[in-house]
Amino acid sequence: MIIALAQLMVVLDATIVNIALPSAQRELHMSDTNRQWVITAYTLAFGGLLLLGGRIGDLIGRKRTFMIGLVGFACASALGGAAHSQGMLFAARALQGAFAAVLAPAALSLLTTTFTDLKERSKAFGIYGAIAGGGAAIGLIAGGVLTEYLDWRWCLYVNVPIALIALLGATWLLHDRRPAAAERPSLDLPGVLLGCGGLVAIVYACSEAVPRGWSDALVLGLLCGGVALLAAFAWWQSRTTTPLLPLHIIRNRNRAGALIVMALAVVGMFGMFLFMTYYLQVVLGYSPLKAGLAFLPMTAAIVLSSTQLSARLMNRLPPRLLMTPGAIVAATGLFLLTFLTVEPAYASHVLPAMILLGLGMGLVFMPVVNVATSGVDQRDSGVSSATVNTAQQVGGSIGTALLNTIATSTSATYIAAHLQAAAAAGAPGPAVRDRVVKEGVVHGFGIAIGWGTGIMLIAAVVAWTMVTARAPKHGPVAPEYAPAYDPHRMRAV
C-alpha cells in the first residue's frame, strides 16, 4: 500500500487543482492568461525531469530516492497551500513536479524489483494500473469535495498527511539493496541537459499551444528546438559509455511498443478529462462536487478492470491480448461521447461511455507497465521506470493541447456560422446566443473526442503488431519479465 499511496498522490496532483482553479484564480488575482501556469508548472517540471529522476534512483538507491521525493513533495505542497501570490503558487507547483519526477520512477522501480513471484506481481501491477488510469479521475473528485466543503488550498495541503503516512510506512516496510560504488552508473551530464531540455521544450510548447495556437512562432520554435535536442540526445546516448537512457531499453520491440501504446492511450483519456469537466460544469451547470463525483463510475471501472480482470488474465494471456481489446473498448467509450448534446444526458450518454472507457483503460495500463519495466538490469530499473512515466506525461500534454486546439477552433467556426445565420433571420436574443454557444462548445468537444477515438484505435493496432511477448509461465517470473535480482519481497503495495 505504501508505493500505491505515493503513486496516487503524484498522479492525482496533475488534476486535483483543475476544479479548484477558479477559486484560486479569484483569491490570488490571476489573469486568464497566467492561470494555466498552475497546471503547466507541474506538468512541465514533472515531464521534463523524469529521466533525471529515474537515474538518481539508480545512483543513490530506490528507497532513499523514494523517501527524498516524499519529503520534497510534501514541503512543496505545504508551500503551495500557503501561497499568498500567484508567483509563489507557480513556484510551488514547479517544485511539486520536480519532486514527483524523482518519486514516481523510484516507486515503479521498487515495485518492479520487489515483486518477482508471478501471482504477487500480477496483484501489484493490477493496483498500480488502477492508480495510473484512475488517479486523474480521483483527483477531479477530491478537488470537487475539498473545494466545495473546505478551501482550494486543501487541494495542496492534503498531500502532507498522505506523504507523512507513506514516509513512515516506507521506513519500516520497504527494502532496497543500495548499489555498490562499482555498480553505480555515472551521471551523464550532457545527456541530462539534452534529454531534459528537449522534453521541457516539447511539453512547454504543447502547453503554450492551447492559448497561442500551433502555428505561433514560439510554439513552433519550441517544438523544433525540442526535437533537435532529443535528436542530439539520441546521438549522444549511442556514443557515451555512461548513457542517461541506455538505448537498448527502447530498442526492445516489446518495450518500445508498450511505451507507444501508453503515450497514445493517454491522449484520448486526458482530453476527455478536460472536455467532460467543462461539459459538466459549463454546459450542464454541475457544481464542482457534482462534476467530480460524475467521474466516480469511471474510476470504479478502472479499479475493477485492473485488479480483477487484468491481474487475473495477465498470468494466462499474452500482453497484447489484453492491451488490444482494452484499447478497442476504451475507443468505443470515447466514440459514445461524440454524440453528446446540450440537454442533460448523463445516464444515457456519459455514464455508459465512462464505464467502457474505464474498463478498457484498466485492461491497457497494467500489461503496458509490466512489459515496459520487465527484463531490465537492476542498475537501469530507475531510468526504465522513468520512461514509462515520461510516455504518460508527454502523451497527456501533447494530447490535451492537440485535442483542445481542435475543439476550440471547431467550436469557434460553428458558433460564428450559426450566429451569422441567426442574425440573418432576425436579431438573435440572449437565449438564442446562449444556446448557439453551448451547441458550438459541445460540437467542438465531439469532433475532438472523435480524433481521440481514432488515436485510441491506433494504440490498439500498435499493441497488436509490436507487443509480441508471450504469456508468462506460472511460478517465478519468466526471464523476459524478471528484474535482474531478487530482493526480499515485502508487501509494500
TrEMBL record:
<feature type="transmembrane region" description="Helical">
    <location>
        <begin position="321"/>
        <end position="340"/>
    </location>
</feature>
<feature type="transmembrane region" description="Helical">
    <location>
        <begin position="65"/>
        <end position="84"/>
    </location>
</feature>
<dbReference type="InterPro" id="IPR036259">
    <property type="entry name" value="MFS_trans_sf"/>
</dbReference>
<feature type="transmembrane region" description="Helical">
    <location>
        <begin position="125"/>
        <end position="150"/>
    </location>
</feature>
<feature type="transmembrane region" description="Helical">
    <location>
        <begin position="34"/>
        <end position="53"/>
    </location>
</feature>
<dbReference type="GO" id="GO:0046677">
    <property type="term" value="P:response to antibiotic"/>
</dbReference>
<dbReference type="Pfam" id="PF07690">
    <property type="entry name" value="MFS_1"/>
</dbReference>
<keyword id="KW-0046">Antibiotic resistance</keyword>
<dbReference type="GO" id="GO:0005886">
    <property type="term" value="C:plasma membrane"/>
</dbReference>
<feature type="transmembrane region" description="Helical">
    <location>
        <begin position="441"/>
        <end position="467"/>
    </location>
</feature>
<feature type="domain" description="Major facilitator superfamily (MFS) profile">
    <location>
        <begin position="1"/>
        <end position="471"/>
    </location>
</feature>
<dbReference type="InterPro" id="IPR020846">
    <property type="entry name" value="MFS_dom"/>
</dbReference>
<keyword id="KW-1133">Transmembrane helix</keyword>
<feature type="transmembrane region" description="Helical">
    <location>
        <begin position="346"/>
        <end position="369"/>
    </location>
</feature>
<dbReference type="InterPro" id="IPR004638">
    <property type="entry name" value="EmrB-like"/>
</dbReference>
<keyword id="KW-0812">Transmembrane</keyword>
<keyword id="KW-0813">Transport</keyword>
<dbReference type="InterPro" id="IPR011701">
    <property type="entry name" value="MFS"/>
</dbReference>
<feature type="transmembrane region" description="Helical">
    <location>
        <begin position="257"/>
        <end position="279"/>
    </location>
</feature>
<keyword id="KW-1003">Cell membrane</keyword>
<protein>
    <submittedName>
        <fullName>MFS transporter</fullName>
    </submittedName>
</protein>
<feature type="transmembrane region" description="Helical">
    <location>
        <begin position="156"/>
        <end position="175"/>
    </location>
</feature>
<feature type="transmembrane region" description="Helical">
    <location>
        <begin position="90"/>
        <end position="113"/>
    </location>
</feature>
<feature type="transmembrane region" description="Helical">
    <location>
        <begin position="217"/>
        <end position="236"/>
    </location>
</feature>
<dbReference type="GO" id="GO:0022857">
    <property type="term" value="F:transmembrane transporter activity"/>
</dbReference>
<feature type="transmembrane region" description="Helical">
    <location>
        <begin position="291"/>
        <end position="309"/>
    </location>
</feature>
<keyword id="KW-0472">Membrane</keyword>
<feature type="transmembrane region" description="Helical">
    <location>
        <begin position="187"/>
        <end position="205"/>
    </location>
</feature>
